[in-house]
Sequence to fold (584 residues):
Amino acid sequence: MLIANRGEIAVRVIRACKELGVTSVAVYSDLDRDSLHVRLADEAYALGGTTAAESYLNTEAILDVIRQSGAEAVHPGYGFFSENTDFARAITEMGVTFIGPPPEAIEVMGDKVSSRIAAQEAGVQGVPGTTEFLSSGDEVVAFGEEFGWPVAIKAAYGGGGRGMRVVHAADEAHAALESAQSEALKGFGRDECYVERYLTWPRHVEMQVIADTHGNTVWIGERDCSAQRRHQKLVEESPAPNFPDEIRQAMGQAAVQVAEACGYVNAGTVEFLYQEGEFYFLEMNTRLQVEHPVTEMVSGIDLVAEQLRVASGEPLSFSQADISLRGHSIEVRVNAEDPAEGKFLPSPGPIATLVPPQGNGVRWDGGYDSGDEVSQYYDNLIGKLVVWAHDRDTAIARMLRCLDEFVLDGPPTTIPAAEAILAHDDFKAGEHSTKWVEDTLDLTGVRGTPAPAGDDEVEKVERSVDVEVNGKRFAVKLFVPADQIAVAAAGGGKGLPKARKRSKGTSGAAPTAGSGRIAVPMQGTVVKVNVAVGDEVTEGQVLCVLEAMKMENNIAADKAGTITEINVEEGASVGSGDVIIVIE
Ligand code: MV4
Fold:
């Protein structure tokens, strides 16, 4: 099977192939020659090119690889060719199986108006509105007067919220329609618009379905994807919180009806808006979605394996009655984006170290390892962190634990934004709507850059110290960061510490051992000065005591001689490298 994709979803599908004994064929752009999906696949072929258009969207190059490799099926993942009927038809004509729905189903669901009509014919309501195209602002006014304000003007052939205008009162209607039409024309080449009631605090709840070619269509539970920003989902979960089971059953039934009405086969997702106990059809996504793992975690079903089964003509391996949904699953998308101050700026770059969290109920679907690079040319999703637990509170606590454990030395990521979301009382209460992240969540002070791991990388050096505790003497071993004992070592005469692994800026060169210029090894407070100017001292004699890191540290003479200078008094705070005493 050829995987016409890259990153984490290609890795996900390649892993399923391995488990099923199917030979996997990866394709790659010039930038992805050494990427994780290429390393994991059984075979890999170059597409050439750098940008998506030159590589993963290059139909001819992919058709060539299909011929060369002898691939019998193509999994498109999401994005790229996943909803492209020309591509699906082209490979089908070659006798190659497209792992996805029939092109006719993709087409019906491809625009908002035909999908809305299809849903309506299947007995599933969208948000109350019109299916006729608007010809003037007066029709918007009439609709608002009849059904109430606000209303939404939507571009029939739009997507992702583009071409949508919210109208709060009659006097805004004409300008809003013109602006929606012009944005739609620019973005999609067509300006047809229609009007709906605007829901002011809906939740985005979507239903997973899968169908085989034997007439079986089942639903596998919902996902709540309300935590999103500018139509980019940040956190997804299953089941939806505060979602009564009778609504779930009705929504599942509605999703199956929509899928059956368009002759659907394979995995798909029916999206709904949910507000005040009512749900409304929004659209259908005719592909495997990014957030499919939360459904897998609560159902125990391998959606990719089932996609391959039904694409090869076999029946689903389970019936609706076999499906039981257990526990709670949450997914966090880890993107190379800097969420600082709520801006979510793309931040591609090399990943020095990536160590995902581990432990009970934890799954990491990644597209990169340590040493890989996130390119500016493709989606910047690094991977998806998914947890499962018996209940939602435990799943939230587990996800917060995992986010805290995540080691990522590389570009800034969305992890701190996810932490802010999961730790928020509104999220914990499950009361967040699709507008909550943008309107309510405060990301002030959130930084995409994790604390530099550098501090942990300073090599530790073993030192032996004698201490007295309540009068009893103990010989204690200390494992001290090498850079903090430079001068103590000189004073103690036990040899110089090894160099640090990572060089850090220092404020001037430290005095050399035996120079008689006594510098403090670390920031602290001088609690005792044992000597005065003019005193004769011997090498190793304790000159003063520095309190630092909650410990008293003796500062010793590094040579015998006479004290000529004392630059501190008791109680003074000193910084690392400060020369406090001079011996001549
Ligand atoms: C709406 C809506 C409220 N009322 N329609 C945005 C993109 C799209 N495909 C549909 N969208 C919406 N349609 C009515 N009548 C609110 C949204 C919406 C939204 C929907 C799903 C997920 C996230 C969203 C974020 C903002 C607005």
